[in-house]
Design a protein that fits this description.
The complex is a heterodimer of chains A (270) and B (210). With 270 residues, chain A is of the alpha/beta class. Chain A is 42% helix and 16% strand. An 8-stranded mixed sheet of chain A has the order 3-4-2-5-1-6-7-8, with helices on both faces. In chain A, a hairpin with a 6-residue loop joins strand 3 and strand 4. Chain B is 26% helix and 29% strand. Classes of the chains: A alpha/beta (270), B alpha/beta (210). At the A-B interface, helix 7 of A face loops of B.
């Protein structure tokens, strides 16, 4: 029996899909059977970030409607054979989702994989509600800015009231990823500190991802940034994936700038 | 049933001098033929015969209902309305007095009130957690919050206890409370003699520079 994790954010453009792709690949690199599912019906992007857009034949909606079998629709990644992908429909919209069909699909995925990662659409509409409804855990992705945090707060509020697990009297595990942290801006006080964000949202911190220019290029090329061992963001995702797989990985404080004058000088002499 | 409603002009009088009466009626006959004559007191045979001869309609020793003008009716209705309002007001104030003595309907919560959540609480509330930006709380009773408030509060109780909350939007008895006045660690906001009083409960901690 696998674990179902929904990746949510509330606000759009904070890096949900990038995080989903990288965490999926990171988990697969830890030798765990993993599937990433794009629930953003009508606006699928995950296939491009994983570099699998040419291989999509059947989509999520066709599987739910019984037009295709799950095995036919899942796509195996070129990079890692443990990573699988199920695409969203591009021609339909979010209204085609139905609770019963989603429940059946999630149950089927849970049987076949160790980790099921659902990429939620932005916003808090029906598409979002269906993504979180049957999830065991949620990863909330935020940027260190007030609008992103307020939207995430709203999304957590809905998660706490609409999730099936909560309705059964259990608790949904909630983890926070703070994405696109710029050390310089935190140091100069322009960006919110992680402590403040954690204070507001009051959920467990899963990891911090620094701002990295390489992320956009990686997405454009369809090679998730986690494959680049030198990239700071890639290293951060590797650490987070390790934590998700049960390893004890220490939190690296990426908010302290490496480019301080002292370090530069030190680098010159040593 | 078929019925008709008339409003009739009535001339009411008591006869003391029959001669004068007949003289008066003769001169004003044109006016009185449209009136209903109401005679109070004694009515002699002569007068009766006179009235019948002139074919005037008349009544003897009868009371007729007297209509009131519209204005009088309206003022009476208004008075009734005001009396009702005053009674309701008194009842409300009595209930309020009672509620200052009672711990009315206390709700205790220990969860974050997140953005978009709205709490509408009948009675008192003790909240042991944050109120995030975008959340709304309304209580009819007293309100105590032990952590930072960034959302909106509406309190109609006798007092509030609020921590220093520079980002909150606090309305106490439909008056906006200035956040700068809530600078202390815990502040009491209360209504005394139609004035809002803000007093520190726990003073601000001084952070010595390290």
């Amino acid at each position: 029996m696998g674990i179902v994790i929904a990746v949510i954010s509330g606000k759009g453009g904070v890096g949900k899909t990038t995080a989903t792709a990288n965490l999926g690949l990171g988990i697969a690199m830890n030798e765990k059977n993993c599937i990433v599912v794009d629930f953003d019906i009508g606006q699928r992007n995950l296939d491009m970030i994983l570099g699998l857009e040419n291989r999509v034949v059947y989509d999520l909606v066709q599987v739910m409607d019984g037009d295709a079998k799950l095995k036919q629709a899942t796509i195996k990644s070129k990079v890692n054979e443990k990573l699988h992908f199920l695409a969203a429909s591009q021609s339909k919209d979010k209204t085609v989702l139905e609770s019963k069909k989603v429940e059946k699909l999630v149950a089927e995925l849970r049987e076949s994989y160790d980790y099921v990662i659902l990429d939620s659409p932005a916003g808090i509409e029906s598409g979002f509600e269906h993504t979180i409804e049957f999830a065991d855990a949620a990863i909330i992705v935020v940027n260190p800015e007030v609008s992103s945090i307020r939207d995430a707060d709203r999304a957590i509020g809905i998660l706490d009231s609409k999730s099936q697990k909560v309705k059964n009297g259990e608790e949904v595990a909630k983890y926070l990823i703070i994405n696109r942290i710029s050390a310089d801006m935190v140091q100069s006080g322009e960006m919110l500190k992680s402590e403040d964000i954690l204070n507001i949202l009051n959920i467990k911190l899963l990891g911090k991802v620094p701002e990295d220019r390489g992320v956009i290029d990686a997405s454009n090329q369809g090679k998730p940034v986690i494959l680049n061992k030198k990239s700071h963001a890639g290293q951060a995702y590797t650490r987070i994936a390790g934590r998700l797989c049960g390893q004890k990985v220490d939190m690296k404080d990426i908010e302290i700038s490496d480019t301080g004058l002292f370090k530069k000088l030190k680098g010159m002499f040593i | 049933m078929k019925s008709k409603q008339y409003s009739v002009k009535v001339f009411e009088t008591t006869i003391t001098d029959e001669k004068k009466f007949i003289e008066f009626f003769d001169t004003n006959y044109a006016l009185f033929k449209d009136h209903l004559i109401l005679i109070q007191g004694t009515l002699s045979k002569d007068i009766r015969a006179y009235l019948e001869k002139k074919s005037l309609s008349f009544l003897h020793n009868q009371t007729v209902p007297v209509g009131r003008p519209r204005k009088a009716l309206e003022t009476e209705l208004n008075i009734q309305k005001i009396e009702n309002d005053v009674n309701q007001q008194i009842a409300k104030e009595e209930i309020k007095k009672l509620s200052t003595r009672l711990q009315n309907n206390l709700t205790v919560l220990d969860r974050i009130i997140r953005s978009g959540q709205e709490l509408d609480i009948e009675g008192d509330l003790l909240l042991l957690n944050r109120v995030n930006s975008g959340a709304t709380i309304h209580t009819t009773g007293n309100l105590i919050i032990t952590q930072v408030v960034e959302g909106a509060l509406r309190c109609d109780g006798n007092f509030m206890m609020i921590t220093a909350s520079p980002k909150a939007n606090i309305i106490f008895h439909s008056v906006e409370v200035d956040n700068n006045l809530l600078a202390n660690k815990l502040n009491r906001v209360e209504l005394k003699k139609n004035q809002i009083l803000i007093t520190p409960v726990i003073k601000k901690e001084i952070n010595w520079a390290l």
